[in-house]
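Let's sit down with a protein and look at its sequence and fold side by side. Which protein we use is up to you, so please pick one and set it down. Label the sequence line and the structure token line clearly, so we can match residues to local backbone shapes. Go ahead whenever you are ready, and we will take it from there:

***
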Amino acid sequence: MGGLKDELLKGIWHAFTALDLDHSGKVSKSQLKVLSHNLCTVLKVPHDPVALEEHFRDDDEGPVSNQGYMPYLNKFILEKVQDNFDKIEFNRMCWTLCVKKNLTKSPLLITEDDAFKVWVIFNFLSEDKYPLIIVPEEIEYLLKKLTEAMGGGWQQEQFEHYKINFDDSKDGLSVWELIELIGNGQFSKGMDRQTVSMAINEVFNELILDVLKQGYMMKKGHRRKNWTERWFVLKPNIISYYVSEDLKDKKGDILLDENCCVESLPDKDGKKCLFLIKCFDKTFEISASDKKKKQEWIQAIHSTIHLLKLGSPPPHKEARQRRKELRKKLLAEQEELERQMKELQAANENKQQELETVRKKLEEAASRAAEEEKKRLQTQVELQARFSTELEREKLIRQQMEEQVAQKSSELEQYLQRVRELEDMYLKLQEALEDERQARQDEETVRKLQARLLEEESSKRAELEKWHLEQQQAIQTTEAEKQELENQRVMKEQALQEAMEQLEQLELERKQALEQYEGVKKKLEMATSKTKSWKDKVAQHEGLIRLIEPGSKNPHLITNWGPAAFTQAELEEREKSWKGKKSTE
């Protein structure tokens, strides 16, 4: 009864929605009274005008919403419905209320009657939630059934492309969108109106009228035993047969139950493709047009009896129920998945919060670490700068030290050069001193020689003067003696001449000695000058090397020209040498 109530509510929902002209979700009370009266009429429910007036009193304010109408609908109509009304008439009444308002004005390939059948099929296949929609899976199922009924091939790619372009904001199509989809021929290209109409009618018969199979076959009469062609319609618990397929002239029914059976019969009496339907009180012989039809009918009737034994609904209803259960299961799984996703999301949010907290802590730690790193880097930079400064200063000091070392090395080299120069100067000074000493010795020798010559000259002069005095005396003495004296004088003059020559010779020697003396004196002056210059140079070196002058511990002799260049012993040695030379002459 619950399934019947759900099916009725779908049609009523369409009628109520059509009466809601301003889409406010509410309908006026007068319209609901008319709707309730019509529902009671078509559903064959006793009409209770007192309850209707009581429920919709005139003193109530405003229109009634769908929720406000549902209590009356359930209590006074739906709970009293029995399965003895005409479903087509009920659907026609609801369709009449909503078709003019909602059916598209654009031309369609289907008639209004076909649109009505699509509307009824929609109510059968739609979901049990409001507003009513048909999901893409059921749309695909319906379009496949229509395509098969039209004898065409199903274009899965075309439907997949249609699904891709499907509006993501909607979960499915409304009934009017479904009618427009089928009516515009998008999935029935190449088919004429009649073919589409026949396909819709076939699907309508199967899904709504529970027609499991239908077609012309020959039936053998029970009384006259003649064979007559009838239009057979197989439903879940009955096989009805009519004069023609317009179903206007019904000739009888074959009631099916779990005790019935179907059997194949051999050909007889000129009839082929025979099979037998055995019921509790009657047996029916039927002849199909061919073996294929015969097998299909036997299989269909056998399946129907088997379902009756199992107490199962018709296949299309069972398939619809399985699809709904599958969708509910998938929806439940999806909801469970969404719940789990929400839990995971909540957990993830918690984790995110924890991670955010950890991230903040890490950021704080990173900030502290960055600050410490910054301080460390700053300290490192300062240390590096200090180290660089120290290194630069070290390099500068090292460079200065190297310069000082180089300078000291240069100074040392200069000092060593000066030492070498001083050593050379010292050697040259020694040579100069030796030359001076030798010059002094030579001067002394020349002086002694000059003195000796002077002494000899003095003695000669004295001797000549003596001789001159003696001559004068001799002249004064006697003339006689004058001759002798003349002779002597001549001899003396000769001797004087010789002496004068010797004196001139001595004078010449003296001049030569003087010249030699002047040369020696010049050499001595030069040596003295050199010595003085060397002494000055040595003095300029701040006494680095103290000059050692040659000298003797014995006292120097003093001459008319100053200190002698020789000692007393040397003088005595030289006198001995002169005397020896003189004695040898």
